[in-house]
Amino acid sequence: xxxxxxxxxxxxxxxxxxxxxxxxxxxxxxxxxxxxxGLKAHGENKLxxxxxxxxxxxxxxxxxxxxxxxxxxxxALPSFAVRATMGQLSSHIKPAQVxxxxxxxxxxxxxxxxxxxxxxxxxxxxxxxxxxxxxxxEVAQKAPTTNVVAAANPKTANFIQDIFMNPYFRVYTHDDxxxxxxxxxxxxxxxxxxxxxxxxxFGDNTKAALMTRGISExxxxxxxxxxxxxxxxxxxxxxxxxxxxxxxxxxxxxxxxLIGQGKTASEACDEIKMxxxxxxxxxxxxxLADKYNVEMPIIxxxxxxxxxxxxxxxxxxxxxxxDKRHESEKGFLASLK
Length: 337
Hints:
337 residues, alpha/beta, eight-stranded mixed β-sheet, 8 strands
């Protein structure tokens, strides 16, 4: 297959390496000519994925239009760049072109998922989403990894599954695009909170509480928006949440640690030197919670810390001192009767 990977960050690079090793012809797009030259000269992505050789068969380009002639287009861009960058392909791709989004985030201004942004910008394309617990570094190391691909057309999901699968990268299929994408996006906010907890010096009890109550909040919002509850118990929900909240590969957790230690969100991003999707996603999640009238106390307190300068310890007390309630939604509603 001829495959174009749009975005040369750590995840885009890892996927380009894997797809080339799977035997496909891969073109990797970067917005920067100097970055393309560096990738070609060094044979690795020294900035975002150092130490992992990129197969010599991979081509590099800054010409977005050359990426339109592909059997599969893979979108691996930061969320803020998806609309402007992929929109350039609108008049160049063939009808029913398969595009799979592997980025995790929401568009802050519109509150759209990235697959919805792609449907806006590429109305004739066949859009799918692939996500799950998959740090770029470990995929590049060929550590056994599982992902899930969701598409409206089962044949599209199966097509992408066949392209990506190999002995160390297993792909499941799904039909809940919205749920898969929300889980993969919103877990970044909870991972930020897990990092803040670590930065404050709290322990495993606190992190377990954040993860458990965090997936509950994500599920509530997902159901309100039309997703399936069971999706959030899968790879794109609890699976991705676990890996992002517990691993030092997670830039969201690492940024959270710095914020918990007293740095601002801006200072944390500067130190991480990569896009921390959870920060912008937190803003979008807060707006979505308000729009759909969904209770999301962790998201609300994260928003207060990130955008309203609320001290993280005060945010913790606000969460711990909330009114008593039943753990399950059904039990809580029954107690009100």
